[in-house]
Inverse folding.
């Protein structure tokens, strides 16, 4: 069982979460970005075997979108942050 | 088959005073309490217990526990008949009905045994080399016979009458296996203060100790250990509980079984239950399994693992032979030989090694065991029961020794499976000729025989250490050290078994899969030498026992053929033992398979003649019996109701989201293709959201209830998606926007009052509130309180009629619904269901979820391109401009009118222009069809290349599944009231 | 280069070997890498081996190496649920998968290796009228493209598959289904072994335990590969490494529209014949068939997040078991013998990429999602054509790597552009 430590709710089974995909892709600014930028954002992935930054939403908990760093080769969770904290710190 | 009763008059862990009667293929037999099916059959002198998978060779029990490959039974009657259960694991209970498997017509007389004679043709991989001719499809002919011959038992034919459950549990320390190491580990961890769960697959705790006579002194140690555990309040000992698999996050799936496999249904007892246990630390004390020797006809009934013979003798008081030959390559074989000899058997030990320690020699001598060192068992003689053993002496002489039991002790294989399920490959240890756990991650420990430590004292020492380490890992340190004196510390040495190719007969590595040395030889010749190739090519280790006795022997055979030393490793996959599908499903069966979502108005519908249909997880009224007895007739009556007077329908399943904050307008401008920021308070607007890739995410309406308070609805299917989408944007991309989004789907009951008399209906229901066209124009909204109930009233229409949506607090939903029905009764108001709702919207040309909104279509495909604002940016805007999505040959929404009066249009028909060849993918397809009560003909919505540019053209709707071609005309998808006069009435 | 015909497999040869006890030759040579090849194929799975075979058989290009990191067939060709079918509705998919099924129908003979194609038919179930209309669209498209299909109503379904749950207990009632009689199963390992043996006999070098660690480039062109067994030069290089496409493409500086996900598969203990067809549940993604050995083989949805672990999550095991009992209540007492995970390369539209890449001389075959096994022969055929001609076979032009630039996705199932929802 992949277990994700939610910063709000504590360690929970992954089944409480909704996966949101690769968080390394940078979303072009709203109304900005070329078609190429949007193409890469939507369709192209690093897909590494190893540490992977990804989004998960705790849908059956606090509903917070989280930034999870997880090793895709072992499912070890390396770090978890609230996505909004990271975005606002930018 | 010998009929001599084999039960010793005394001894064993059985209760002779409680006779248990059972049947084998209908024949009544008796055992005693404490028996397994295997021990009871053996006590009754029944040693032929099955036929092998491929060659249908007669087989007896090889083992006494979880490793058993041969003795599989169908147990139970009727819908409870369960195939393929190893008799060694079936607890005997009163009335148990068992039958042996895989014999045609019976296990005693099996015509399929002819396969054994044909075996030179049927070696590993034979089917890849033949059955290809004479025709291309010939395999299908042969396959029928092969399928009939294959399989073991017969699956039940009806639903399972028993109950299952799934549970969740947590522990600081999980100890798997209650042998000496596990008992010691659980006690050490428990005394350190950790919450401990100790699981044991057997009915009793004790592991290897159970194969010792209960009269001997070590029984005291076992009892003391159990008593100590019982005194520790934080320690739970679960017998009849098997650890099936290890998963990420130190999660172990446990399978619990009710006693005797016969749940007490009257008390709601489950037959089996799955527990998902999350442990902070795990101790694997899973023991070891003895290996057979590989010699000719080593599969004859009466050839058995030495440890199994000892277990039958000491635990179940069944002595299986008076003249016993025991072949070994290790010290444990000597101890078993001595134990059996002390039990009264005449015992000859054939030891492969030329020399052993004086201590072993002395022990054997004292027990009266005759010993041949440097000898190798080469063959078992006998067909349905072993009669003699052939062995070659150290000097190369062949000797035949009559015997009635031939025991094999080929060394011990550590049970490393569980620890390797998460990808930690076991490693081979040459000194004990076994795999041991690889380097386990933090928080996982192995102890005892599972870890290659076979002496009792050593196992207990390791168990204590592992238990303490596990407790420490979870924050419980400083436990006192147990003093365990006087446990035997016998060393264990082994020499890898010599595996001579048989001169005649078949020598089996895998009994159930019928994999012999010859098959390994074929795999070797053909180059299938990698461990996984060997397994896949020969089926080694693929049987129901998962290779517990065969994997290492098979790999050793291959290594020997390749001239390599033993070693290598293989992947073990969960589960450790086969697990019932029913147990995994638990209570999620039948109507509980998936929770049904019910509207707050559900009970009213049930009481008032609604027939329900599934809409995703929702149960929604399909139609009401007032309108007809079949959906076909009822929905038309309901459509007439809405078109001519007034109806009411339940729309509670729509997703509902409240948005608050000063930036909601800006936010909605970004997520919808059209503009919302300019929406006045008290007004609503229809909007479409796109995904980043420009496909349509959802459509719905949003009303501005107050300056900073908005009420948004989504389609039923996309409610969750849209909510997460909005939250994602607010929490990641646009954290600067001051917007809060809250799902209120379950907070409100929703109802649509639709039809030319709908305003009158509301006037009757809501006296004192102004719902006139001036006060509540089309796309207007109001918040009112009526008789203490806060309501939202939105003038929106899906049907194309004058219509209102009323939202009431969920717990007042039925009251409001009934109030409207009562108040508007003079107008003839009635409820209408989903079928009518979906048909009314087709007449009006509204797109709907799953038919037109199928996640593939774009705004332009749906004919809604003009909605896209050019004044502001919206999600999907950029990728919408890709050439493929703007190409003229894209399809777009059209209406279709049937031109063949005696035919009908059908959903899923493929569209062609007149004159097209009716082949290929056509120009589009029909998405939705209904009978139009307004037009009096069949109409449809469809997607057609070029869309309304072809309006007026006659096309062909091909439905070759019914051999049908129907003519239709392309028209506007808005079949009724194109000017919207009804809406604005 | 051809071996003597005495190596041919047949009932007669089997009998001769049984009587004489003469050993069979190795199914394929344990080839040592040579300095260079006309074509180097990275990945010794079903697709790579099929590509090598058709290069040699159809195009006479025999100076070919297949490089396999582990053993032949160690990836997804030996981890799938063995289903083959051609019930597709999207223009491009329909023709490609039907071509593949036609190749399956002649494969045992072509390879002189019995891959046990068993066309027992597949039924996709519908639980309501809307779902049946969607299936009808697919069935009509199939018929219009010369592929057989039959739409079944509930009564026909009850006759064909009497063991499904038609009782009022069923949470999602059975409404009808779409039957393709030519669909069925193939013995998966035999596909890898049969292609390997046939390719080897045509001179292809199959090199196992050979890990590709990089690409050799010269002026922006790939001219060879670096491997754990030395550098090998190549006229053209093909990547065919399902489950690791992104990792290998990265070695050539490519980022792909691919994410790797874990799909679990299950097999029960063997029982006497129970399920003749392949059955696909309509309420959730779940499909079941019975192998010739008697085990029920089934699978469900991917675990739902990027993973290279080759082991699944337990809740998914339970979900799949729930589907099994919902569909066929009688199998509740049967037991799962093994379950395992394969790494599936998922794409934003559920369809693959085959053909040229932006790097000269480097060709890609990746992103097969759930479709990889059934596509094996056609992929091999068309990819070989592409490698031989330097230009895509017409049947795979729809599977181009840059199709999302143009907005030409092939979303067969309408699941949107999220790989983990596909």
């Amino acid at each position: 069982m992949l277990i994700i430590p939610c910063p709000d709710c504590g360690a929970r089974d992954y089944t409480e979460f909704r996966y949101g995909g690769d968080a390394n892709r940078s979303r072009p600014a709203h109304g900005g970005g070329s078609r190429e930028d949007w193409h890469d954002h939507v369709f192209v992935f690093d897909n590494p075997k190893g540490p992977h930054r990804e989004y998960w939403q705790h849908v059956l908990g606090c509903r917070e979108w989280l930034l999870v760093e997880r090793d895709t080769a072992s499912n070890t969770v390396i770090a978890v942050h609230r996505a909004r904290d990271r975005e606002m710190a930018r | 088959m010998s009929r001599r009763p084999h039960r010793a008059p005394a001894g064993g862990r059985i209760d002779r005073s409680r006779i248990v009667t059972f049947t084998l293929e209908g024949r009544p037999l008796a055992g005693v309490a404490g028996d397994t099916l295997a021990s009871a059959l053996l006590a009754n002198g029944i040693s032929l217990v099955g036929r092998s998978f491929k060659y249908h060779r007669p087989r007896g029990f090889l083992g006494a526990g979880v490793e058993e490959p041969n003795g599989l039974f169908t147990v139970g009657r009727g819908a409870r008949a369960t195939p393929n259960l190893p008799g060694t694991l079936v607890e005997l209970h009163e009335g148990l009905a068992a039958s042996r498997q895989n014999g045609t017509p019976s296990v005693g007389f099996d015509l399929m045994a002819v396969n054994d004679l044909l075996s030179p043709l049927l070696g590993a991989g034979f089917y890849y080399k033949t059955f290809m001719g004479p025709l291309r499809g010939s395999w299908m002919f042969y396959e029928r016979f092969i399928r009939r011959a294959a399989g073991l038992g017969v699956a039940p034919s009806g639903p399972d009458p028993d109950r299952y459950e799934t549970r969740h549990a947590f522990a600081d320390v999980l100890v798997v296996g209650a042998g000496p190491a596990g008992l010691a580990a659980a006690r050490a961890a428990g005394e350190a203060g950790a919450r401990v769960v100790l699981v044991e697959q057997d009915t009793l705790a004790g592991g290897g100790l159970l194969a010792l006579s209960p009269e001997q002194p070590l029984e005291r140690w076992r009892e003391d250990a159990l008593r100590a555990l019982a005194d520790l309040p934080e320690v739970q000992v679960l017998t009849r509980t098997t650890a099936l698999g290890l998963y990420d996050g130190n999660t172990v799936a446990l399978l619990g079984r009710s006693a005797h496999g016969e749940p007490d249904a009257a008390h709601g007892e489950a037959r089996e239950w799955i527990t998902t246990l999350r442990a902070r630390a795990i101790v694997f004390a899973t023991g070891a399994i003895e290996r057979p020797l590989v010699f000719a006809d080593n599969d004859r009934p009466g050839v058995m693992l030495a440890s199994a013979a000892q277990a039958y003798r000491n635990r179940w008081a069944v002595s299986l032979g008076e003249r016993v030959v025991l072949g070994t390559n290790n010290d444990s074989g000597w101890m078993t030989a001595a134990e059996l000899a002390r039990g009264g058997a005449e015992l000859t030990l054939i030891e492969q090694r030329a020399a052993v320690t004086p201590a072993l020699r002395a022990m054997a001598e004292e027990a009266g065991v005759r010993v041949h060192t440097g000898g190798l068992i080469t063959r078992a003689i006998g067909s349905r029961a072993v009669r003699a053993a052939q062995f070659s002496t150290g000097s190369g002489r062949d000797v035949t020794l009559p015997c009635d039991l031939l025991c094999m002790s080929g060394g011990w294989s550590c049970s490393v499976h569980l620890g390797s399920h998460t990808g930690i490959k076991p490693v081979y240890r040459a000194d004990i000729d076994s795999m041991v756990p690889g380097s386990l991650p933090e928080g996982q420990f192995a102890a005892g025989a599972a870890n290659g430590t076979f002496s009792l004292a050593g196992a207990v020492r390791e168990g204590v250490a592992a238990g303490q380490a596990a407790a420490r890992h979870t924050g419980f340190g400083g436990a006192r050290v147990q003093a365990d004196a006087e446990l035997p510390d016998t060393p264990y040495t082994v020499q890898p078994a010599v595996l001579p190719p048989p001169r005649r007969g078949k020598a089996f590595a895998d009994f159930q899969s019928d994999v012999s040395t010859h098959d390994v030889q074929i795999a070797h010749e053909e180059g299938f030498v990698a461990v996984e190739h060997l397994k896949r090519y020969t089926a080694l280790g693929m049987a129901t026992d998962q290779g517990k006795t065969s994997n290492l022997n098979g790999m050793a055979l291959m290594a020997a053929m390749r001239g390599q030393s033993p070693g290598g490793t293989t992947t073990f996959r969960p589960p450790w033992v086969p697990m019932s599908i029913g147990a995994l499903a638990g209570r999620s069966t039948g109507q509980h398979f998936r929770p049904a979502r019910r509207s707050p108005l559900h009970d009213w519908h049930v009481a008032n003649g609604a027939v329900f249909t599934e809409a995703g997880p929702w149960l929604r009224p399909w139609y009401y019996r007032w309108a007809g007895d079949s959906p076909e007739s009822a929905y038309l009556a309901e459509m007439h109701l809405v078109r001519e007077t007034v109806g009411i329908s339940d729309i509670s399943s729509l997703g509902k989201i409240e948005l608050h904050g000063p930036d909601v307008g800006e936010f909605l401008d970004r997520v919808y293709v059209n503009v919302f920021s300019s929406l006045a308070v008290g007004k609503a607007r229809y909007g479409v959201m796109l995904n980043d890739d420009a496909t349509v995410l959802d459509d719905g309406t949003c009303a501005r209830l107050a300056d900073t308070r908005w009420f948004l609805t989504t389609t039923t299917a996309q409610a969750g998606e849209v909510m997460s989408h909005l939250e994602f944007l607010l929490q990641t991309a646009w954290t600067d926007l001051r917007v809060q989004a809250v799902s209120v789907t379950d907070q409100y009951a929703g109802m649509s009052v639709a039809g030319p008399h709908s305003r009158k209906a509301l006037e009757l229901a809501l006296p004192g509130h102004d719902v006139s066209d001036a006060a509540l124009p089309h796309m207007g909204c109001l918040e009112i309180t009526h008789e203490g109930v806060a309501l939202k009233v939105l003038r929106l229409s899906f049907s194309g009629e004058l219509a209102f949506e009323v939202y009431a607090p969920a717990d007042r939903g039925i009251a409001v619904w009934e109030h409207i029905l009562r108040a508007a009764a003079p107008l003839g108001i009635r409820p209408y269901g989903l079928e009518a709702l979906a048909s009314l919207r087709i007449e009006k040309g509204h797109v709907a979820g799953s038919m037109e909104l199928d996640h593939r279509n774009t705004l332009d495909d749906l004919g809604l391109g003009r909605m896209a604002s050019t004044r502001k940016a919206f999600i999907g805007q950029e990728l919408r401009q890709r050439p493929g999505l703007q190409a003229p040959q894209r399809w777009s929404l059209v209406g279709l009118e049937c031109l063949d009066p005696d035919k009908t249009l059908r959903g899923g028909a493929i569209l062609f222009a007149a004159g097209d060849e009716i082949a290929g993918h056509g120009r589009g397809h029909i998405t939705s069809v209904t009978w139009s009560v307004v037009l009096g003909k069949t109409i449809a919505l469809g997607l057609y290349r070029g869309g309304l540019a072809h309006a007026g053209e006659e096309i062909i709707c091909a439905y070759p599944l019914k051999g049908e071609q129907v003519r239709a005309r392309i028209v506007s998808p808005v079949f009724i009231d194109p000017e919207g006069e009804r809406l604005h009435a | 280069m051809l071996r003597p015909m005495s190596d041919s497999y047949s009932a007669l040869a089997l009998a001769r070997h049984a009587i004489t006890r003469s050993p069979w030759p190795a199914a394929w040579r344990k080839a040592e890498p040579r300095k260079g090849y006309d074509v180097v194929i990275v990945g010794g799975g079903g697709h790579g081996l099929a590509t090598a075979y058709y290069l040699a058989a159809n195009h006479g290009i025999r100076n070919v190496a297949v490089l396999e990191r582990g053993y032949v067939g160690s990836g997804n060709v030996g981890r799938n649920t063995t289903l083959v079918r051609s019930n597709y509705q999207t223009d491009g998919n329909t023709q490609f998968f039907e071509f593949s099924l036609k190749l399956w129908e002649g494969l045992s003979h072509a390879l002189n290796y019995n891959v046990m194609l068993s066309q027992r038919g597949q039924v996709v179930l519908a639980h309501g009228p809307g779902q049946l209309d969607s299936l009808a669209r697919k069935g009509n498209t199939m018929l219009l493209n010369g592929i057989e299909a039959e739409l079944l109503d509930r009564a026909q379904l009850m006759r064909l598959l009497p063991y499904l749950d038609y009782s009022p207990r069923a949470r999602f009632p059975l409404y009808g289904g779409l039957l393709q009689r030519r669909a069925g199963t193939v013995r998966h390992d035999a596909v890898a072994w049969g292609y390997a043996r046939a390719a080897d006999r045509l001179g292809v070098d199959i090199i196992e335990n050979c890990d590709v660690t990089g690409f050799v480039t010269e002026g922006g062109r790939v001219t060879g590969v670096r491997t754990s067994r030395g550098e090998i030069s190549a006229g053209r290089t093909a990547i065919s490494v399902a489950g690791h496409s992104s990792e290998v493409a990265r070695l050539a500086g490519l980022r792909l529209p691919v994410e790797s996900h874990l799909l679990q598969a299950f097999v029960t203990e063997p029982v006497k014949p129970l399920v003749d067809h392949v059955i696909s549940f309509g309420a959730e993604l779940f499909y079941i068939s019975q192998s010739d050995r008697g085990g029920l083989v089934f699978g469900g949805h991917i675990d739902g997040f990027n993973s290279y672990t080759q082991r699944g999550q337990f809740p998914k095991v339970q979900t799949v078991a729930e589907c099994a009992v919902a569909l066929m209540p009688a199998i509740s007492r049967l037991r799962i013998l093994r379950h395992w995970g394969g790494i599936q390369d998922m794409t934003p539209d559920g369809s693959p990429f085959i053909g040229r890449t932006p790097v000269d001389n480097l060709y890609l075959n990746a992103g097969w999602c759930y479709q990889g096994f059934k596509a094996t022969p056609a992929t091999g055929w068309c990819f070989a054509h592409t490698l031989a001609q330097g230009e895509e076979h017409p049947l795979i032009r729809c599977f181009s790597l840059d199709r999302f630039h143009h907005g030409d996705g092939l979303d067969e199932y309408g699941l949107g552009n999220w790989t983990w929802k596909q």
In short: The longest strand of chain C covers residues 259-270. The two ends of chain C are 45 Å apart (CA to CA).
